[in-house]
Amino acid sequence: MTTSPDAQNFLVPEPSYAKLIAPEVQLTVSSVAAVIALLDEGCTVPFVARYRKEATGGAEDFAIQQILDRLQFHRELWQRRNVILESIASQGKLTPELQAAIVGAVTRAELEDLYLPYRPKRRTRATIAKERGLEPLADRMWAQAERAGMPEEHAAAFVDGEKGVATVDDALQGARDILAERITETADWRARVRELTWRRGRIRTQVSRGKAGATSKFTDYYDYSEPVERIPSHRILAILRGEQEGFLSMSIQPETEQAVELVNRAVVTRRSIWDEQLRLAVADGCDRLLLPQIETEIRVQLKETADLEAIRVFATNLRELLMAPPLGGRPVMAIDPGFRTGCKVVVLDATGRLLDHGVVYPTEPRNDVVGTESALDRWFRAHPDLVAVAIGNGTGGRETFAVVRSYLKKRDRNVLVVSVNESGASVYSASEVARDELPEHDVTVRGAVSIGRRLQDPLAELVKIDPKAIGVGQYQHDVDQKLLRTKLDEVVEWCVNQVGVDLNTASMTLLQHISGLGPKLARSIVTHRDQNGPFPDRAALGKVAGLGRKTFEQAAGFLRVKGGKNPLDDTAVHPERYALVERIARDAGRPLARLAGDPEAVRTIDLRRYVDDSVGLYTLQDIVTELEKPGRDPRRDFATVDFRDDVQTIEDLTSGMILNGTVTNVTNFGAFVDIGVHQDGLVHVSQIADRFVRDPAEELHVGQTVRVKVLEIDLDRRRIALSIKQAAG
């Protein structure tokens, strides 16, 4: 064996991550290096994306997040590479060739394949055979040097009853066990068999014993097969859930004969007396070790890939939901509908503060429409500035909606009636956040308040709820929960910072998602606000306990102060640029208060005059955008959908109906649409458009209003098949 390298030389120095990541994210090395430097300084993704564009070359937030993810991957790979090198070197087995292979490995799988023969392992048939002194016999088989004689003749010399090798057959079997493990642990062959299984293997599912006659949502998979390389993520997750619930068994069927032949060709390289023994070792190694291990690896990788895709879908839907158009700061009434226990009614002011509440019984079993209308009269007289009524879309929602809309028509009141998705409202009602906000009220009042606030500002209200309770995920409880939480937190952070928050009205829950803050500082801000009154400007943040210079830099641009002396405090212009903007206003011959909000005047500014070493066109263009429309909201304009009055339950549906609906969830296989019957219908991906649709998310988003045609109703399974493309035809 070649001697091990000097202990001082085998560890790999930390690489240039910018050079590794730049081609992966399709940005320049200098841009990636700048992003990495800023992130390592403690800057957040939203801050870097919004306020350091000159350094990053205008890299978008998604690219910066991708750089952060890849940076973590490459750092972990570098650390793992050195752990492996150190482990093998400590065993005295690190040859220059092996070191070069480990240094050149670019994936975790490649690294682990190379490490496999040197990884500490439990006792196996191979280790037992080595303990019995059979490795020299295995090496002779492996070398394939002997062309004359019989294997038994060579094996006879290794028979030793005291070592547990009683016969020649025992000796040959032990040698084959050693070779079977050696074959399994050879990185190149392992990689080729893995690739063959990915390319030619099939997923096979069968119904579990005792479940053959049971009707379930997994019926389609009771006898199912699909190529490994083509199975989509949602199908893998469905199959794995079926396994977990005891309905299915899943296996990965490799091309066994091809795999064995592939390894045979690599192992049996010359004619010798050992041909048969080697083929037996290959067959045993593939059947007992290699193929089961590859199946486990592929199963894990399929799950990881499916998790990533499901989390991507969930994150996309969550982003659309959180960025749904707000009604805005206007007084509203909200109703949490119900049957036996009645409908809880609340009245909220423009900031979402609870003003009044009560209960009405417009639905079964009481059907007290007269009493409901009388109560509504009282509330509207007491609160004449109400502009909308938000009604939860849960049980009794359509019936309550119809009663309220009829009442408003009778009274000729110009008030909007909106059906609001109440998913997760009950989770909020019982939460610590809700108890802190509404300590004097029970869960029914809190639920109605949440519905009303969702209409006023979906983002501000939904951040109080665990995203998994909102109902826009795909197999969300089956995926890697730590990764799911990380990615959903990233989405929430992006949305909150994209919109910005009112420093003087934002809840602690909302504030904690602002760049650089977190729960502790968010609580300090609210405590300071409660004790000292509203913040007069952004600069007053410096008086908050624990909020230092770096945190102020990261957070200030995303916090708004409305109605203050400086109009820039209600924009995304960062305080570090206030002096520059004031200079621009002086050059324009206008007070800053008159320049802000005057698009025509702003467009006359010659930005090139202000470019210097510290500020470039990226920042100046962002400043102009903010000056044109201070306090702008990046979310879409508010819109509502009208449901048909004569369609309120699934039993009211008939094939061919054309209905309005709202997209509630987008998955890889289609989109779910609320058509007002307490059961979302599915628009399969093939029914979205006349052209081929690869990804439904490219065509539809959560909250989008669509027209659909009812294709099929399955009352037994409560399933509704819808079509968008046929509704347009």
Automatic annotation (TrEMBL):
Lineage of the species this protein comes from: Bacteria, Candidatus Eiseniibacteriota
SUPFAM superfamilies in UniProt: Nucleic acid-binding proteins, Ribonuclease H-like, RuvA domain 2-like, Tex N-terminal region-like
GO molecular function: mRNA binding; structural constituent of ribosome
A single BP term in Gene Ontology: translation
Protein name in the entry: RNA-binding transcriptional accessory protein
GO CC term, one of those recorded: cytoplasm
Occurrences of domain S1 motif (ranges): 656-725
Species assigned in the record: Eiseniibacteriota bacterium
InterPro entries xref list: HHH_9 (IPR041692), NA-bd_OB-fold (IPR012340), Ribos_protein_bS1-like (IPR050437), RNaseH-like_sf (IPR012337), RuvA_2-like (IPR010994), S1_domain (IPR003029), S1_Tex (IPR044146), Tex-like_central_region (IPR055179)
Pfam family, one: HHH_3
CDD domains xref list: S1_Tex
